[in-house]
Design a protein that fits this description.
By secondary structure, the chain is of the alpha+beta class. It is built from 36 helices and 38 strands.
Amino acid sequence: MKMVKSDQLLFEPVDTFLLRAPLLSLSHDHRKASNVDIIPILKEYINRAEIREAIAVASPNLFQSLDKIYGSPNAKKTRNTISSLLKFLIRMSSRPTPFGLFSGITVGELGPDTVGKIATIDKHQKRARPDMEWLLGLVCKIEGEPLIADKLNVFFNDAVYKTTDRVYLHYFSNCGQLRNNANQERKDNISIKKTKVVEYVQSVSKDPISISELMKQLHLKYPGASNKDIQSLIWNLFKQEFLISELRPPLVNCSPLSYVIEILERIPEAKQINSILKEIESDIEVYNQMPLGEGLNFLHRLTKKMQDIQPNKQPLQVDLRLACTEKIRMNHTIGAHAANAAEWMWRLSKNEIGIEHLREYHVEFLEKYGVNREISLLDLLSDEKGLGAPPTYKYPLSTKPTKASQVQSTHPLLMEKYIQCLRENKKEIKLTSSDREKLMDMETDDIFAPNSGELFIEVLASSSEEIDKGNYQLLIGNNIGSQELGQTFGRFTDMMETNEKMDLMKEQQKIEKIFTDDETEYVELSFLPQSGRSSNVSITQSFRNLHTAIATNTNIQNEKLLIEDIMVGATLGRFYLKSKKSNKRLVFTSNNMFNYVNAPNCFRFIREVSLEDVKGIQGMHLGILREFAFIPRITTDKVILSPAVWKLNDQTDGLSDFSVPIDQWVETFSGWMEKMQVPDWVFMAYGDNRLYINLKNRNHLYELRSELRRRGRVQLQEVIGDYANKQWLKSPLGNHNAECIIPFKKKHHVPAKPTVNINTVVETPLEHREKEPGSDWLYVKLYGPVYKQPKLIFEQIQILVEEVENRNAIKSWFFIRYHDNEHHVRLRFSGEPKMLLSEVIPLLQNWYLTQRQVGNLKKFVIEPYEREIERYGGLLLMPLMESYFEKDSVLTAKLLELNNKQTFKEPLELVASMYIIYFLTMYGWSHRKQLEWICRWGEEQEYSKEFRPYRNEILKTLDKDENWKTLREQKPLLFSLFTKNKNIIQEISDYVTEESITTTEERLIGSLIHMHCNRLLGTDRDREKKAMAFVRQIIESQKHWEQTKRTIIKQ
């Protein structure tokens, strides 16, 4: 099958790739691990120095238990040791995922041919550095030494938000020690009383200041305070992380220990501990230079020295760079096929742009804030001031309910192919170029594809020469890839050559220049996890100019972007992030593979919002097929997109009964294998973990049985062909399994995503925005049957309004209709606070009781009135807007009354469209401007059938010549009602023309018209859509009407 033409492809490969491979060979070592008589084999392996060192790094506990292998085979401890060693040996010979010294990485390049030769084990390069849990524990201990802490610089944590009386900490990292403190619960929602002293501390520690200098500043400001009280306050703020010390290492620094040593170097009181740290740093470098297999005794002495100053079972974190006889190279055709495979995986992913739980949150945001208001990130995520965290957020735990998980639908193409596969009794689904064309027609626009990413693949070929001849297959990994170029490389940045790092950086910069505008800034984002060991995968080198760090420091080379500078806004389609300081859109990235679902809410939110305009590569949209006991292999051209999968669980006949004798269980399992046609060699997979096992090997089968018993389910993946011999990567040990991480980028011909128009609004003070009961506004919600709303508005509410107006108890009023969980009318009165409380509320209460008795209402609720200031042009324009709301309320109430009396022969939607035309014309928009604006609403011919009977009469009626002569003469009542709003419409127009407003003119007009439809037609958006469709057809027809009129006049 030929590949699709290159000019039609969505992605293209980047020339630099990452290769990962296990330490031992698949063809020799794994074969030995598959021997039935495994104990002699294991004894042989644990006597090899490089194996012992690798085990000591990976699992000190297992290393201490190695001698137990010489015990009785029936003893439990011996069996456990054998099981652990077997799994480790299988992993060291078949799994390329980096894990201590079990596997390693190197960097390769695409080229005209393939080169794949690993050097001998003693040539590989170790990179050890302190485990971050150990280092952060030591930092925490040093911070607790008053004499040293006194000299440390601190800064006020910017991940805080304030209410009227408290200062809340958004995230408490516990300095990465939560895992070590078994008795300590996770702390969320830490807060302190907001006092003038605390606010002063915050103001003087915006920039780093030593604790001793901070104390001096407090003594000068508050001379009456005792030294003990000031010390207690600062120490309290420090321990609770309201103050962060400079000693915490940035995670965008590849040498955290060197950073700590450098900070302590200038503090005399830290000389002793720093001397030990320098020795440890030197010893780590010595260990790194030792060939693998020669460093075991030194490793033990080094870890003992580290444990003496800070207890930790595994104080070192070790990675391995594979040495090669020459630079690893892969034929460029592999890159082309990988980029094509990435496109297939993207097109077969769930057809959703952005993150599902953010879509619900986006709706909630629009309802509360609209599209013209930007909210501080931490205020938004707080329960006290904003919406709280979105559903599924965990740090701190969101209070919003999570939608019940539903069985996802299967991609239509895959379901069709699956059914065909069953009919034809085949085990493979083959996707063709014509299938790809179908997907291009039915799926998301290409602009929403990721700008870059990385694909995890295995190249199945017996040699480099066979790859160059085209004799190969590509297999997509269980872990499909990353969301952005370079993320998989991030953890290994310090193990890469300078030119390799520069190549990736240049590619990244080129991609961003092509697909983003100059008004967008990219920011590197990091945070200190509560479990410090998780930081090991987050340490990286960032090439970004801007860096935001949560609960730790930024790198000195990077400009710091504070959390408090981040604003959240929304268009009608999605969220965006903005810097308050630079007024530029922000996109946050993290150059690592840490799963941000387990990050603090603010971190997770800004990462997810940064992906709001992307349909990610999530893996094939299998939906319900994932629940089936067998899923066929899915292929296209030379690529295996997904291997065949068999599933075992506690429902599988006979296999969940572990009380039966092992021989009986094995016999039952063999029957299942035969029935399901499972091959002997498979991968036992869970997540991105997998073990290459032989189901006819009792030792391997015991591991499967144990896994099924422990987890209740096991997934078996097929092994493709002669797997052990289809390995192109060679070493003196034999053939090695290899995984290539191929970066890809979107091709230049794909247009950039639409730019986001961000606001330049200054946040309005709370006292102008929120009008509480007892202020100059009274806001009441009136709940009742929706079908009774029109009469309630034009009759009963009018009676209430007349009564309060006759008593001079209000200055103005207006209403809107709304539907959250229930339909209701929102009624608002402005006036003197005293009059609203003493006159309006008692009248309102009596009026409500009457309405409840007759069934018009069932409850009423008084709430604060939050003015949508930015939506309606700004604080200065708001009084005029609220005056218009009142006039529009009077107008719509009267129109509802006339409609109830069947005064109109036209439907109410058409009456709404007539007023909208009048409004736009009196506002001063030309016909051309009206046409440009209305064309953004809906489809061109929508509701044309419903409009056609009224077309000619409406066009005559809405002829604005001679002061709307036809409207005035033929529909005098409507003309009289419309013209009552003429002056205020023109006032709004004059203001918008002369003054700057906080939204666009088009949005402002759209909001006023939307609320007119709301008052007149209710909350049914289809009725509004119909009215706007009529407006469009009137405006489009007016052009032809004017031409016809001129022709008649000439004749």
